[in-house]
Predict the 3D structure of the following.
Amino acid sequence: MTMAKNRFRGPGVCACVALLACAPFVAAGIVAAEAPVIPQYGPDKHEGVSSCDGSTCHGSAAPRNDRNVRQDEVLIWSEEDRHSQRAYKVLLNRDSKRISKNLGRKKPPHQDDLCLDCHADNPPPDKRRTENGAFRVEDGVGCEGCHGGAERWLRPHDSGISHAKNVELGMYPTDEPVARTRLCLSCHLGDRKKFVDHRLMGAGHPRQSFEVALFSILQPYHWEPDDDYTARGKQAPSDVKLWAIGQAVAVDEVLDAMLDDNRNTLGLFPELVLYDCQACHHGIDKTRRWRPRASTGLGPGVVRLNDSNFLMLVQALQLIDPASAKALRADLKKLHQGASEGRGDPKAIARKIRANLAQLLPKMEKWRVDAKALRALSKNVLADALGGEYADYAGSEQAAMAIQTIVYGYYAEELIDDDVYDGLEQRELTKLLDSVADPDKFNPDNAKKAFRALEAKLRGK
Ligand code: HEC
Ligand code: HEC
Ligand code: HEC
Ligand code: HEC
């Protein structure tokens, strides 16, 4: 899963890396007083993928770009994007049937809202344009599952109205980092209405992991943040900035789950999904995985929170607002001690961290990720990796995803050339990603070795 230099993997398209690097940051109030409503819960009817699919609209067989956008979005989505029919189709397979049976569900998974809420665009029945088979839940996570029910904007958006006007008519602002991350996480972590809890995991659902910059690339892009994109008033932050804001949103969502009484308990126990899976799930006899981690203040033999997003956010804040990074480190330690050892009031800490984050977001949006910032970020992340801070699997996994985005940033900022980038991608980055590929085989010492090899290659660049 290394990061392709060419993120537009649509058929026959050339790389537009330079455009990504120089896209200006558009200042906008993305911490809107009221957050935009996630498409599934919005007030508008969903018109169905078939209403986007016209050959002069988004259903072209090749990129046309004669109307600002590529126009082959439907093709990229249906052939390369797992959100298309595949997200729905997996609900018909044996794994899904087993999960459903283990949970004692009455309906089969492809008819069960529990599953459809994330594996398809699944608005309520009265919010679907079903005439002539326009809307089909079988289409999976269709266009409107991310872009919002098109009832009010379908016609107008076709006639050159501004992006802001589209958003006013109910289009979801997928370009805004906070809104995008919240949207993705509504399925890739869950929200107040849908959630993959430990019961679902225990029944066989795969573990969730997410990082918005990398996952946007892996989706892959069916959009091009070029000059006209920003001229139309859309935001095109650099990958590293998207990563940083994405970590803040992820921390906010994790804290929301911890504070939500419908999600934070499982019988007598706290909800285990919020903890580090490998704190419990590893062999007893052979593995001796425990390593001290300064930031937790915890000793051996306790279940630790999955703090991977917090660890990354601390790194971003270290460069954006060092005093806040220090405060977050202190609060995280208290959160750990509350959640693992019953000391203090972890809910009060969770609320405090969320309030601080709301204050910090505008600062994060103004962050300029220049060469100096990239160098400092990679130095700090790698120092923590070598210091043992990412000894837990989830921490190493997030750090490895971050390093991938940072190394790509080095390339985009021309701190390393094509040859160096290709070499890193073939060797050091691949080794690092291999070291976190399988949680069951994770060994913190191997991961550390891989981080060290990268550190040696990036030193002085
Ligand atoms: C909160 C959202 C959410 C809910 C609820 C949910 N899933 Fe998922 N599911 C996901 C996401 C996101 C992935 C992809 C994880 C990844 O690869 O990072 C996934 C992956 C899967 C996979 C593996 C897919 C593959 O390509 O191999 C199966 C099988 C699955 N889910 C079945 C189910 C079933 C059955 C239900 C209902 C009982 C369900 N899911 C409920 C979000 C959800
Ligand atoms: C999983 C979420 C997701 C799905 C599903 C999805 N998109 Fe997108 N789309 C995005 C994101 C993220 C962007 C980039 C941000 C933006 O431009 O708003 C985007 C951008 C776009 C753009 C804007 C390009 C520009 O230059 O302004 C178009 C057009 C588009 N998508 C069409 C579609 C169509 C058509 C479908 C269905 C075939 C679809 N999308 C499905 C997430 C999604
Ligand atoms: C409505 C729910 C939903 C939303 C919203 C959503 N996803 Fe997904 N996503 C899924 C499901 C379900 C899968 C698993 C599909 C499969 O493999 O069968 C998935 C899979 C993926 C994968 C493939 C993961 C892998 O293991 O290969 C990527 C990448 C991804 N999503 C990125 C995104 C991004 C980026 C966003 C936000 C712009 C987003 N998703 C929004 C439900 C969603
Ligand atoms: C506090 C300890 C703890 C944590 C943390 C934890 N689990 Fe579990 N897990 C358990 C226990 C206990 C069981 C039940 C084992 C049994 O029934 O034999 C279980 C069962 C499972 C199973 C079913 C295994 C089987 O063989 O059927 C899966 C899969 C699973 N957990 C995944 C996860 C994932 C993914 C995470 C992290 C997001 C996680 N667990 C976090 C304790 C934990």
